[in-house]
Design a protein that fits this description.
Structural class: alpha/beta
Radius of gyration: 27 Å
Low-confidence stretches: 496-502
Mean pLDDT: 89
Shape: elongated
Distance between the termini: 58 Å
Strand order of the largest sheet: 12-15-18-11-19
Helix content: 25-40%
Strand content: 15-25%
Number of helices: 22
Largest sheet: 5 strands, parallel
Number of strands: 19
Length: 502
Amino acid sequence: MGTYGLDAFPVEVETDLSSGLPGFEVVGLPGTAVKESRDRVRAAMKNCGFVFPVKRITMNLAPADKRKEGPIYDLPLLLSLLKSSEQLSCPTDDAVFLGELSLSGEVRRIRGVLAMAVKAKEAGFKRLFVPAANAAEGAVVAGLAVYPVETVPQLVAHLTGRSSIPRAEHTAQATPLDPLLDFADVKGQVVAKRALEIAASGSHSVIMIGSPGAGKSMLAKRLPSILPDMTFEEALEATMVHSVAGALPDGSSLLGARPFRAPHHTISAAGLSGGGASPKPGEISLAHNGVLFLDELPEFPRIALEVLRQPMEDGRVTISRVGGNATFPCKFMVVAAMNPCPCGYFGHPSRPCTCAPGAVDRYLSRISGPLLDRLDLHIELAPVELTQLSSKAKSEPSAEIRKRVNAARNRQTERAGQTGCTCNADIPSSRLQEVCDPTPEATALLNMAFEKFGLSLRGYDRVLRVARTIADLDASARVLEDHVAEAVQYRVLDRKFWGRNW
Protein backbone atom coordinates (compact mmCIF):
# COMPACT_ATOMS: atom_id res chain seq x y z
CA MET A 1 0.00 0.00 0.00
CA GLY A 2 1.03 3.59 -0.55
CA THR A 3 -0.35 6.95 0.53
CA TYR A 4 -0.81 10.36 -1.04
CA GLY A 5 -2.28 12.74 1.49
CA LEU A 6 -5.02 10.76 3.25
CA ASP A 7 -5.67 8.60 0.21
CA ALA A 8 -4.13 5.13 0.09
CA PHE A 9 -3.65 2.90 -2.94
CA PRO A 10 -2.55 -0.75 -3.37
CA VAL A 11 1.00 -1.34 -4.56
CA GLU A 12 2.07 -4.67 -6.04
CA VAL A 13 5.74 -5.66 -5.83
CA GLU A 14 7.08 -7.60 -8.82
CA THR A 15 10.56 -9.16 -8.84
CA ASP A 16 12.64 -10.51 -11.72
CA LEU A 17 15.91 -12.41 -11.24
CA SER A 18 18.04 -12.75 -14.34
CA SER A 19 21.57 -13.73 -15.23
CA GLY A 20 24.18 -11.13 -15.96
CA LEU A 21 26.20 -8.64 -14.00
CA PRO A 22 24.81 -8.58 -10.41
CA GLY A 23 22.74 -5.51 -9.62
CA PHE A 24 19.70 -4.39 -7.67
CA GLU A 25 17.28 -1.91 -9.22
CA VAL A 26 13.91 -0.68 -7.96
CA VAL A 27 11.63 0.95 -10.54
CA GLY A 28 8.10 2.34 -10.47
CA LEU A 29 8.71 5.98 -9.46
CA PRO A 30 10.50 5.22 -6.17
CA GLY A 31 11.42 8.08 -3.85
CA THR A 32 14.80 8.42 -2.17
CA ALA A 33 13.78 6.38 0.88
CA VAL A 34 12.49 3.60 -1.40
CA LYS A 35 15.74 3.52 -3.38
CA GLU A 36 17.65 3.19 -0.12
CA SER A 37 15.50 0.15 0.70
CA ARG A 38 17.92 -1.91 -1.43
CA ASP A 39 20.65 -1.62 1.19
CA ARG A 40 18.30 -2.28 4.10
CA VAL A 41 16.80 -5.32 2.39
CA ARG A 42 20.23 -6.75 1.48
CA ALA A 43 21.56 -6.39 5.06
CA ALA A 44 18.34 -7.67 6.67
CA MET A 45 18.30 -10.80 4.49
CA LYS A 46 21.90 -11.69 5.28
CA ASN A 47 21.57 -10.97 9.01
CA CYS A 48 18.39 -13.06 9.27
CA GLY A 49 20.07 -16.13 7.77
CA PHE A 50 18.73 -15.90 4.22
CA VAL A 51 20.80 -15.97 1.02
CA PHE A 52 20.89 -12.77 -0.97
CA PRO A 53 20.74 -13.82 -4.66
CA VAL A 54 23.82 -12.89 -6.65
CA LYS A 55 21.90 -12.03 -9.81
CA ARG A 56 20.55 -9.07 -11.68
CA ILE A 57 17.53 -8.07 -9.58
CA THR A 58 14.79 -5.85 -10.95
CA MET A 59 11.87 -4.95 -8.67
CA ASN A 60 8.85 -3.03 -9.92
CA LEU A 61 6.34 -1.16 -7.76
CA ALA A 62 3.05 -1.12 -9.63
CA PRO A 63 1.25 1.06 -10.56
CA ALA A 64 4.33 2.70 -12.02
CA ASP A 65 2.70 6.11 -12.57
CA LYS A 66 2.27 6.88 -8.83
CA ARG A 67 5.23 8.02 -6.80
CA LYS A 68 6.19 5.79 -3.88
CA GLU A 69 7.56 7.52 -0.79
CA GLY A 70 8.86 6.37 2.56
CA PRO A 71 10.37 3.20 4.04
CA ILE A 72 7.05 1.31 4.21
CA TYR A 73 8.06 -0.85 1.21
CA ASP A 74 11.05 -2.48 2.92
CA LEU A 75 9.11 -5.49 4.18
CA PRO A 76 7.19 -6.28 0.97
CA LEU A 77 10.38 -5.88 -1.09
CA LEU A 78 12.17 -8.42 1.10
CA LEU A 79 9.29 -10.92 0.97
CA SER A 80 9.01 -10.60 -2.81
CA LEU A 81 12.74 -11.25 -3.13
CA LEU A 82 12.49 -14.30 -0.87
CA LYS A 83 9.65 -15.73 -2.95
CA SER A 84 11.41 -15.04 -6.25
CA SER A 85 14.58 -16.74 -5.02
CA GLU A 86 12.47 -19.72 -3.82
CA GLN A 87 13.43 -19.24 -0.16
CA LEU A 88 9.78 -18.72 0.76
CA SER A 89 6.71 -20.47 -0.57
CA CYS A 90 3.28 -19.41 0.71
CA PRO A 91 0.10 -17.72 -0.61
CA THR A 92 0.08 -13.96 -0.02
CA ASP A 93 -2.50 -12.70 -2.53
CA ASP A 94 -4.98 -11.80 0.23
CA ALA A 95 -2.40 -10.05 2.42
CA VAL A 96 -0.86 -6.60 2.72
CA PHE A 97 2.63 -6.13 4.16
CA LEU A 98 3.91 -2.85 5.58
CA GLY A 99 7.04 -2.02 7.53
CA GLU A 100 10.47 -0.46 7.68
CA LEU A 101 13.43 -2.79 8.25
CA SER A 102 16.45 -2.38 10.43
CA LEU A 103 19.73 -3.87 9.25
CA SER A 104 19.24 -6.74 11.71
CA GLY A 105 15.75 -7.61 10.40
CA GLU A 106 13.60 -5.90 13.00
CA VAL A 107 10.38 -4.30 11.72
CA ARG A 108 10.11 -0.67 12.71
CA ARG A 109 7.16 1.67 13.15
CA ILE A 110 5.80 3.54 10.13
CA ARG A 111 3.15 6.22 9.65
CA GLY A 112 -0.18 6.19 7.85
CA VAL A 113 -1.16 2.65 8.88
CA LEU A 114 -4.77 3.54 9.67
CA ALA A 115 -5.40 5.10 6.25
CA MET A 116 -3.80 2.10 4.53
CA ALA A 117 -5.75 -0.36 6.69
CA VAL A 118 -9.03 1.29 5.71
CA LYS A 119 -8.07 1.11 2.03
CA ALA A 120 -6.94 -2.51 2.36
CA LYS A 121 -10.33 -3.44 3.78
CA GLU A 122 -12.12 -1.61 0.95
CA ALA A 123 -9.92 -3.35 -1.65
CA GLY A 124 -10.92 -6.78 -0.35
CA PHE A 125 -7.72 -7.85 1.43
CA LYS A 126 -8.17 -10.16 4.41
CA ARG A 127 -4.83 -9.92 6.24
CA LEU A 128 -2.60 -7.01 7.21
CA PHE A 129 0.93 -7.46 8.53
CA VAL A 130 2.29 -4.32 10.20
CA PRO A 131 5.01 -3.40 12.71
CA ALA A 132 4.07 -4.33 16.27
CA ALA A 133 4.12 -0.63 17.24
CA ASN A 134 1.34 0.04 14.68
CA ALA A 135 -0.80 -3.03 15.39
CA ALA A 136 -3.28 -1.30 17.71
CA GLU A 137 -3.78 1.42 15.10
CA GLY A 138 -4.50 -1.04 12.30
CA ALA A 139 -6.80 -3.17 14.48
CA VAL A 140 -9.30 -0.30 14.62
CA VAL A 141 -10.58 -1.40 11.20
CA ALA A 142 -13.16 -4.13 11.73
CA GLY A 143 -13.18 -7.15 9.43
CA LEU A 144 -9.44 -7.08 8.75
CA ALA A 145 -7.06 -9.55 10.42
CA VAL A 146 -4.11 -7.50 11.68
CA TYR A 147 -0.86 -9.23 12.70
CA PRO A 148 1.88 -7.42 14.68
CA VAL A 149 5.31 -8.24 13.25
CA GLU A 150 8.48 -7.72 15.27
CA THR A 151 11.13 -9.41 13.11
CA VAL A 152 11.49 -10.92 9.65
CA PRO A 153 12.17 -14.49 10.96
CA GLN A 154 9.00 -14.28 13.04
CA LEU A 155 6.96 -13.31 9.97
CA VAL A 156 8.50 -16.03 7.77
CA ALA A 157 7.80 -18.64 10.45
CA HIS A 158 4.17 -17.52 10.54
CA LEU A 159 3.74 -17.57 6.76
CA THR A 160 5.28 -21.06 6.48
CA GLY A 161 3.20 -22.43 9.35
CA ARG A 162 6.08 -23.17 11.73
CA SER A 163 4.62 -20.80 14.34
CA SER A 164 1.76 -18.35 14.66
CA ILE A 165 1.56 -14.63 15.32
CA PRO A 166 -1.45 -13.76 17.52
CA ARG A 167 -3.88 -11.38 15.86
CA ALA A 168 -4.07 -7.85 17.21
CA GLU A 169 -7.43 -7.01 18.73
CA HIS A 170 -8.97 -3.57 18.99
CA THR A 171 -8.91 -2.67 22.67
CA ALA A 172 -9.68 1.05 22.37
CA GLN A 173 -6.17 1.84 23.54
CA ALA A 174 -6.36 5.61 23.43
CA THR A 175 -3.42 7.96 23.44
CA PRO A 176 -2.21 8.81 26.94
CA LEU A 177 -3.62 12.09 28.16
CA ASP A 178 -1.77 14.78 30.04
CA PRO A 179 -3.52 16.09 33.16
CA LEU A 180 -6.01 18.75 32.10
CA LEU A 181 -6.03 22.19 33.66
CA ASP A 182 -9.29 23.01 35.45
CA PHE A 183 -11.54 26.06 35.23
CA ALA A 184 -11.90 25.85 39.01
CA ASP A 185 -8.51 27.59 39.24
CA VAL A 186 -9.68 30.64 37.28
CA LYS A 187 -10.49 33.72 39.33
CA GLY A 188 -13.09 36.05 37.86
CA GLN A 189 -13.58 36.31 34.08
CA VAL A 190 -17.15 35.00 34.35
CA VAL A 191 -18.13 36.37 30.94
CA ALA A 192 -15.13 34.78 29.24
CA LYS A 193 -15.80 31.39 30.83
CA ARG A 194 -19.42 31.57 29.73
CA ALA A 195 -18.33 32.40 26.17
CA LEU A 196 -15.89 29.47 26.10
CA GLU A 197 -18.66 27.18 27.32
CA ILE A 198 -20.82 28.33 24.40
CA ALA A 199 -17.91 27.91 22.01
CA ALA A 200 -17.20 24.36 23.18
CA SER A 201 -20.89 23.43 22.96
CA GLY A 202 -21.32 24.53 19.35
CA SER A 203 -17.71 24.35 18.05
CA HIS A 204 -17.66 28.12 17.53
CA SER A 205 -14.47 30.07 16.92
CA VAL A 206 -13.41 32.63 19.54
CA ILE A 207 -11.13 35.63 19.81
CA MET A 208 -10.14 37.04 23.21
CA ILE A 209 -8.84 40.61 23.52
CA GLY A 210 -7.29 41.92 26.71
CA SER A 211 -4.23 43.38 28.34
CA PRO A 212 -1.28 41.21 29.38
CA GLY A 213 -2.08 39.08 32.41
CA ALA A 214 -5.84 39.24 31.93
CA GLY A 215 -5.98 35.46 31.55
CA LYS A 216 -6.34 34.87 27.80
CA SER A 217 -3.80 32.05 27.51
CA MET A 218 -4.83 30.61 30.87
CA LEU A 219 -8.44 30.29 29.74
CA ALA A 220 -7.50 28.84 26.35
CA LYS A 221 -5.30 26.16 27.90
CA ARG A 222 -8.21 25.05 30.08
CA LEU A 223 -10.60 24.76 27.14
CA PRO A 224 -9.73 21.06 26.47
CA SER A 225 -11.15 20.19 29.89
CA ILE A 226 -14.67 21.16 28.80
CA LEU A 227 -14.67 20.01 25.18
CA PRO A 228 -17.39 17.45 24.38
CA ASP A 229 -16.58 13.77 24.02
CA MET A 230 -15.64 12.62 20.52
CA THR A 231 -17.80 10.13 18.67
CA PHE A 232 -16.08 7.06 17.19
CA GLU A 233 -16.32 8.57 13.70
CA GLU A 234 -14.75 11.84 14.85
CA ALA A 235 -11.96 9.99 16.65
CA LEU A 236 -11.31 7.85 13.56
CA GLU A 237 -11.02 10.88 11.27
CA ALA A 238 -8.71 12.76 13.64
CA THR A 239 -6.56 9.68 14.27
CA MET A 240 -6.13 9.09 10.54
CA VAL A 241 -4.75 12.61 10.08
CA HIS A 242 -2.33 12.19 12.99
CA SER A 243 -1.29 8.79 11.68
CA VAL A 244 -0.40 10.14 8.24
CA ALA A 245 1.53 12.99 9.88
CA GLY A 246 3.44 10.55 12.11
CA ALA A 247 2.09 12.27 15.23
CA LEU A 248 0.37 9.23 16.76
CA PRO A 249 2.24 7.75 19.77
CA ASP A 250 3.40 4.14 19.67
CA GLY A 251 0.79 1.59 20.69
CA SER A 252 -2.15 3.99 20.33
CA SER A 253 -5.26 3.07 18.42
CA LEU A 254 -7.47 6.16 18.61
CA LEU A 255 -7.03 9.67 19.94
CA GLY A 256 -8.49 9.80 23.43
CA ALA A 257 -9.41 13.49 23.39
CA ARG A 258 -10.04 16.25 20.92
CA PRO A 259 -6.79 17.66 19.51
CA PHE A 260 -5.49 20.94 20.91
CA ARG A 261 -2.85 22.50 18.68
CA ALA A 262 -0.99 25.69 19.62
CA PRO A 263 1.55 26.61 16.90
CA HIS A 264 4.05 29.40 17.51
CA HIS A 265 3.40 32.70 15.79
CA THR A 266 6.49 32.24 13.58
CA ILE A 267 4.79 29.38 11.71
CA SER A 268 4.60 29.66 7.93
CA ALA A 269 1.51 29.42 5.74
CA ALA A 270 2.59 25.92 4.65
CA GLY A 271 3.03 24.92 8.28
CA LEU A 272 -0.60 25.83 8.93
CA SER A 273 -2.21 24.47 5.77
CA GLY A 274 0.15 21.55 5.07
CA GLY A 275 2.36 20.86 2.11
CA GLY A 276 5.55 19.24 0.91
CA ALA A 277 6.45 17.35 -2.26
CA SER A 278 4.35 14.50 -0.92
CA PRO A 279 1.68 16.55 0.90
CA LYS A 280 1.44 16.15 4.66
CA PRO A 281 -1.21 17.69 6.91
CA GLY A 282 -0.54 21.03 8.58
CA GLU A 283 -1.66 22.39 11.93
CA ILE A 284 -5.21 23.12 10.80
CA SER A 285 -5.70 19.46 9.81
CA LEU A 286 -3.98 18.19 12.95
CA ALA A 287 -6.60 20.24 14.83
CA HIS A 288 -9.44 18.45 12.98
CA ASN A 289 -12.42 17.94 15.34
CA GLY A 290 -10.50 19.91 17.95
CA VAL A 291 -9.01 23.32 18.70
CA LEU A 292 -6.41 25.51 16.97
CA PHE A 293 -5.09 28.03 19.50
CA LEU A 294 -3.41 31.10 18.02
CA ASP A 295 -1.79 33.12 20.80
CA GLU A 296 -0.60 36.66 19.98
CA LEU A 297 -2.72 36.65 16.83
CA PRO A 298 -1.39 39.90 15.26
CA GLU A 299 2.17 38.53 15.43
CA PHE A 300 1.38 35.74 12.94
CA PRO A 301 2.39 36.45 9.34
CA ARG A 302 -0.50 37.99 7.42
CA ILE A 303 -0.27 35.39 4.65
CA ALA A 304 -0.45 32.58 7.21
CA LEU A 305 -3.60 33.99 8.79
CA GLU A 306 -5.31 34.44 5.44
CA VAL A 307 -4.75 30.73 4.76
CA LEU A 308 -7.33 30.02 7.47
CA ARG A 309 -10.22 31.73 5.74
CA GLN A 310 -11.33 29.12 3.22
CA PRO A 311 -10.70 26.05 5.45
CA MET A 312 -12.78 27.64 8.22
CA GLU A 313 -15.69 27.83 5.79
CA ASP A 314 -15.26 24.55 3.91
CA GLY A 315 -13.94 22.22 6.63
CA ARG A 316 -11.23 20.90 4.32
CA VAL A 317 -8.01 22.07 2.69
CA THR A 318 -6.64 20.96 -0.69
CA ILE A 319 -2.90 20.94 -1.40
CA SER A 320 -2.10 21.00 -5.12
CA ARG A 321 1.14 19.57 -6.41
CA VAL A 322 2.43 18.36 -9.77
CA GLY A 323 1.82 14.78 -8.69
CA GLY A 324 -1.82 15.44 -7.82
CA ASN A 325 -4.10 17.01 -5.23
CA ALA A 326 -4.32 15.98 -1.59
CA THR A 327 -7.37 16.95 0.46
CA PHE A 328 -7.26 16.94 4.26
CA PRO A 329 -10.23 17.46 6.60
CA CYS A 330 -10.00 20.46 8.92
CA LYS A 331 -13.15 21.11 10.93
CA PHE A 332 -11.68 22.98 13.87
CA MET A 333 -12.37 25.71 16.40
CA VAL A 334 -10.10 28.73 16.19
CA VAL A 335 -9.32 30.17 19.61
CA ALA A 336 -7.30 33.35 19.18
CA ALA A 337 -5.83 35.70 21.77
CA MET A 338 -4.44 39.19 21.28
CA ASN A 339 -3.53 42.41 23.06
CA PRO A 340 -5.42 45.61 22.21
CA CYS A 341 -2.21 47.38 21.13
CA PRO A 342 1.56 46.77 20.87
CA CYS A 343 2.24 47.73 24.50
CA GLY A 344 -0.88 45.87 25.60
CA TYR A 345 -2.50 48.54 27.78
CA PHE A 346 -4.78 50.47 25.44
CA GLY A 347 -8.00 51.02 27.38
CA HIS A 348 -6.54 49.65 30.64
CA PRO A 349 -8.30 51.16 33.69
CA SER A 350 -5.09 51.94 35.60
CA ARG A 351 -2.05 51.67 33.31
CA PRO A 352 -1.52 54.19 30.47
CA CYS A 353 -0.92 53.13 26.90
CA THR A 354 2.56 54.09 25.69
CA CYS A 355 1.98 53.44 21.98
CA ALA A 356 2.69 56.18 19.46
CA PRO A 357 -0.23 57.83 17.64
CA GLY A 358 -1.58 55.52 14.98
CA ALA A 359 0.20 52.47 16.40
CA VAL A 360 -3.04 50.99 17.72
CA ASP A 361 -4.77 51.21 14.35
CA ARG A 362 -1.74 49.71 12.57
CA TYR A 363 -1.60 46.91 15.13
CA LEU A 364 -5.26 46.02 14.76
CA SER A 365 -5.10 46.25 10.97
CA ARG A 366 -2.76 43.23 10.90
CA ILE A 367 -5.91 41.13 11.20
CA SER A 368 -8.14 41.38 8.18
CA GLY A 369 -11.84 42.05 8.36
CA PRO A 370 -12.77 38.85 6.49
CA LEU A 371 -10.90 36.77 9.08
CA LEU A 372 -12.54 38.57 12.01
CA ASP A 373 -15.91 38.09 10.35
CA ARG A 374 -15.38 34.32 10.54
CA LEU A 375 -14.84 34.36 14.32
CA ASP A 376 -18.16 33.76 16.05
CA LEU A 377 -17.43 35.06 19.56
CA HIS A 378 -15.47 38.21 20.40
CA ILE A 379 -14.58 38.50 24.08
CA GLU A 380 -13.16 41.51 25.90
CA LEU A 381 -11.22 40.55 29.03
CA ALA A 382 -10.90 43.20 31.72
CA PRO A 383 -8.12 42.92 34.35
CA VAL A 384 -9.13 40.79 37.32
CA GLU A 385 -9.75 42.81 40.49
CA LEU A 386 -7.66 42.26 43.59
CA THR A 387 -10.67 41.14 45.64
CA GLN A 388 -11.29 38.32 43.15
CA LEU A 389 -7.64 37.24 43.14
CA SER A 390 -7.46 37.08 46.92
CA SER A 391 -10.75 35.23 47.28
CA LYS A 392 -10.49 31.65 48.54
CA ALA A 393 -13.75 30.64 46.90
CA LYS A 394 -13.39 28.04 44.15
CA SER A 395 -14.88 28.67 40.74
CA GLU A 396 -17.10 26.13 38.99
CA PRO A 397 -15.01 23.08 38.06
CA SER A 398 -14.56 21.93 34.48
CA ALA A 399 -16.42 18.68 35.17
CA GLU A 400 -19.68 20.55 35.82
CA ILE A 401 -19.26 22.76 32.76
CA ARG A 402 -18.49 19.73 30.60
CA LYS A 403 -21.76 18.07 31.63
CA ARG A 404 -23.70 21.01 30.20
CA VAL A 405 -21.50 21.04 27.08
CA ASN A 406 -22.09 17.33 26.43
CA ALA A 407 -25.84 17.76 26.98
CA ALA A 408 -25.95 20.64 24.47
CA ARG A 409 -23.86 18.69 21.94
CA ASN A 410 -26.16 15.67 22.33
CA ARG A 411 -29.12 17.85 21.36
CA GLN A 412 -27.24 18.92 18.25
CA THR A 413 -26.41 15.29 17.43
CA GLU A 414 -30.11 14.42 17.67
CA ARG A 415 -30.78 17.06 15.01
CA ALA A 416 -28.03 15.69 12.76
CA GLY A 417 -30.58 13.90 10.59
CA GLN A 418 -32.22 17.27 9.96
CA THR A 419 -29.09 19.37 9.47
CA GLY A 420 -26.50 16.85 8.30
CA CYS A 421 -24.00 18.12 10.92
CA THR A 422 -23.36 17.38 14.58
CA CYS A 423 -22.49 20.89 15.76
CA ASN A 424 -24.22 24.22 15.33
CA ALA A 425 -21.20 25.94 13.80
CA ASP A 426 -21.66 23.77 10.69
CA ILE A 427 -25.39 24.33 10.14
CA PRO A 428 -25.77 25.30 6.44
CA SER A 429 -27.23 28.73 5.80
CA SER A 430 -30.05 27.22 3.75
CA ARG A 431 -31.34 25.38 6.85
CA LEU A 432 -30.49 27.97 9.47
CA GLN A 433 -33.91 29.59 9.91
CA GLU A 434 -35.62 26.21 9.96
CA VAL A 435 -33.27 24.71 12.55
CA CYS A 436 -33.01 27.75 14.81
CA ASP A 437 -36.73 28.62 14.61
CA PRO A 438 -36.36 32.07 16.22
CA THR A 439 -39.40 33.71 17.78
CA PRO A 440 -40.70 36.94 16.19
CA GLU A 441 -39.15 38.94 19.06
CA ALA A 442 -35.79 37.23 18.53
CA THR A 443 -35.92 37.92 14.79
CA ALA A 444 -36.74 41.60 15.39
CA LEU A 445 -33.79 41.98 17.78
CA LEU A 446 -31.43 40.28 15.35
CA ASN A 447 -32.57 42.52 12.51
CA MET A 448 -32.04 45.59 14.68
CA ALA A 449 -28.50 44.43 15.54
CA PHE A 450 -27.82 43.84 11.85
CA GLU A 451 -28.67 47.46 11.08
CA LYS A 452 -27.06 49.08 14.13
CA PHE A 453 -23.74 47.21 14.12
CA GLY A 454 -23.43 46.83 10.36
CA LEU A 455 -23.17 43.03 10.46
CA SER A 456 -22.29 41.24 7.28
CA LEU A 457 -24.53 38.47 6.00
CA ARG A 458 -21.98 36.00 7.32
CA GLY A 459 -22.00 37.76 10.68
CA TYR A 460 -25.80 37.63 10.76
CA ASP A 461 -25.74 33.86 10.24
CA ARG A 462 -23.03 33.38 12.84
CA VAL A 463 -24.97 35.30 15.48
CA LEU A 464 -27.95 33.07 14.78
CA ARG A 465 -25.82 29.91 15.10
CA VAL A 466 -24.42 31.10 18.43
CA ALA A 467 -27.95 31.90 19.61
CA ARG A 468 -28.95 28.34 18.65
CA THR A 469 -26.14 26.99 20.83
CA ILE A 470 -27.21 29.18 23.76
CA ALA A 471 -30.73 27.82 23.31
CA ASP A 472 -29.35 24.27 23.40
CA LEU A 473 -27.58 25.03 26.67
CA ASP A 474 -30.95 26.22 28.00
CA ALA A 475 -32.68 23.11 26.56
CA SER A 476 -34.94 25.41 24.51
CA ALA A 477 -36.52 24.15 21.30
CA ARG A 478 -36.69 27.68 19.85
CA VAL A 479 -34.26 30.59 19.80
CA LEU A 480 -35.64 33.24 22.12
CA GLU A 481 -34.98 36.97 22.39
CA ASP A 482 -32.63 36.48 25.36
CA HIS A 483 -30.55 34.01 23.36
CA VAL A 484 -30.10 36.49 20.50
CA ALA A 485 -29.31 39.31 22.92
CA GLU A 486 -26.47 37.31 24.49
CA ALA A 487 -25.14 36.22 21.09
CA VAL A 488 -25.08 39.82 19.83
CA GLN A 489 -22.97 40.86 22.82
CA TYR A 490 -20.21 38.60 21.53
CA ARG A 491 -19.80 40.54 18.25
CA VAL A 492 -17.84 43.49 19.65
CA LEU A 493 -15.46 43.60 16.66
CA ASP A 494 -18.33 44.29 14.29
CA ARG A 495 -18.98 47.66 15.94
CA LYS A 496 -17.68 50.70 14.09
CA PHE A 497 -14.33 51.94 15.43
CA TRP A 498 -14.39 49.07 17.91
CA GLY A 499 -10.89 49.71 19.23
CA ARG A 500 -11.65 53.34 20.14
CA ASN A 501 -14.67 52.44 22.29
CA TRP A 502 -12.79 50.35 24.82
